[in-house]
Every structure is written in C-alpha cells, then in structure tokens.
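User: I need a structural model of threonine-phosphate decarboxylase from Blautia stercoris for a docking pre-check later this week. Nothing fancy, just the predicted structure tokens so I can convert them on my end. Input:
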Amino acid sequence: MSYHTHGGDVYRNKNVIDFSANCNPFGTPKSVKEAAVQAMEEVFHYPDTDCQELREAIGVYEEVRPEWIICGNGAADLIYRLVLGTKPKQAVLFAPTFAEYEQALEIVNCEVKHYELKEENGFCVEETLLDWITEKTDIVFLCNPNNPTGVLLERKFILEVLKRCKEKNSLFVLDECFVDFVEEPENHTIKDMLKEYPNLFLLKAFTKRYAMAGVRLGYGLSSNQRLLEKIQHCGQPWAVSTVAQKAGIAALKEEEYVKRSMAYVHAQRKKLIKNLTLLGYKTFDSKANYIFFQGEEGLYEKCLEKGILIRDCSNYYGLKKGYYRVAVKLQEENEKLLEVLKACRKDGEKWQKRL
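Assistant: Understood. Predicted structure tokens for threonine-phosphate decarboxylase:
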C-alpha cells in the first residue's frame, strides 16, 4: 500500500473552494480562535501531559468518566499509538474506508483482511462481516458513518460486531468522528457500552465538528485502563499543545454552534444529493457531512481547473477511478459546485435543462 493522499491540500491548490475536506461549513467558532490566541500567553510552559482540564470537559460533554479519556494530536495520532501499543497480528477493515487504519497497521507488519463493500449493495455492510472475525482477529476497525461513503451502520448491527469481538477476544475500534453530523447521533453512538466492554475503543475528534483541522486534537474513550496506558506510552508526552487544549475546552462550550450547524448540514446534504442526482451522477446513501458519488473519469482535474477542489477517491482500497467525495458546505458554495459539475458534464447542455 502506497502513501495515501488525503483531501484538504489547499497548500498546493491555491485559490480554490475546498470540497475535499469534510469540516463544519460554519468555520472555526470565534471563541475557539480567541482561546487559542489567549493560550499563547502560556506557551512558555510545557503543556499538561495529562490534559486534565480538557479531559474533564470532554467527560462532561460525552457523559463519560475523565479517566476513560485519552487525548491526542488528532484522531490519527491515537490510531498510530493504539496500533503501536497493541501490535496486532491480524486486523479486519472495511474496503473502502479511512486509510490511516491500514497505514498504521503496516508499521507493525499486521496482516490486513479487507471486507470489501460492494457498489451493487450501495456500499452497505452485510451480516457476513461477523464471520470474518475469528480467533485469529486481534483488532477490528470500523468507521461509522463510513469514510468516504457516508453510509451509516445501525446501532443493532454495531452491537453484534462488538459482542462478536468480545467472544473472539478482539479489540474493537469504532471511529465515531463523523457521528455528530448524522441525524439523532445519540441513537448511533455506543459509548454507553464502554463499561460493559473493555475491548471497545471509541475514536472521536474536534477536527470535523468544530472545523479545527489545523489545531490537531482528537480523543479516545475506553474503560480499559491498561489499554489507555499502552496508548499513552507509545507517544511523546507533549502530544497535545497548550493551544490545542485551551481551544478544545472553548469548543465544548459551543452548544448553539453545533446545534445550528448540524441542522444546516442536514438540509444542505439532502439538497445536494437531489441536485447531483438530477445532474445524472450516481449518489450513495450518505448520512454524514459529505456525499460520495460516481462520475466520469477526469472530473477531479476538470473541477480543479474551475476553482473547485473535490476528493478523488480512486486511491482508496477497493475503489477505482470515477468515484468522488464532496463536503457539504454553505449554500452559495454548494451552488457553485453544482454549476461547475454541470459545466463538466460531457453532455452538459442536456443535463442543465433538468435543473
């Protein structure tokens, strides 16, 4: 597996509207930026290695004990540290899914078994996944909703996977970084199962919910203290900067921002899916703040020429050229995207009449 190129590369693609990274379209809250600036007064001190104040704030937000929380330099940092701390020999992953799971597993020479999601099934998972989890399975990574497809797993099925993992003595890592963007997220998280299942590790981040990608702040939830200690010891002690900690604490107070932006994203997602379908693109059942669709090859380059950066998903394991992902952004930006996609259609004139 070669190095995976992510979205959000605005450093080599200047003056574009970035639809390739799936962050909150409302942008970073003012209070978060102000907290980050104020934190500069304290940067002559080393950061708190325990992130005590931040973990307490997350505990209140998530209704989880602070001692069950570990913070990291983004969710990706915790993925790598978890793998380094547990050194699994065999893993089960979706294909396609977030590439960092596999890249981390490669470091410890872990055998990766790809459960391939099929287009004819809408890239939905089937019950057969349970059969893939055996006595040889050390770790299972699932992303809900999945990235890049946006397909949401039902809580009932996730609990079946969790139970299966416990039976087979497998660690179950569930990535819930995008669950905040689904409607009724409280019905899809399984954080209430942490106490009963010490083999469960939940992964979350501030990156998407609060548009804080450049701050690098993520956290994990687990009742397994031994596991958390292993993860902690596999990274440098000052992984979370003072600026990140203070910004995170401020972000957790932004209740109205989250409520307002999530409702906005839900409405815009539905509009965007409808209009992409009218343009003749094949869309899939995304429940997150991004839309996965199929179009003609070369669409990435055509959009980029017109100032729109979309995510070419052809480098995801299990996908080929012609699959793309776009973030749900503000209405005027979404309208610009649709204009560009209309212009990019090979038979654009025909399809333009349908909008």
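Before docking, keep this in mind: Residues 255-278 form the longest helix (24 residues).
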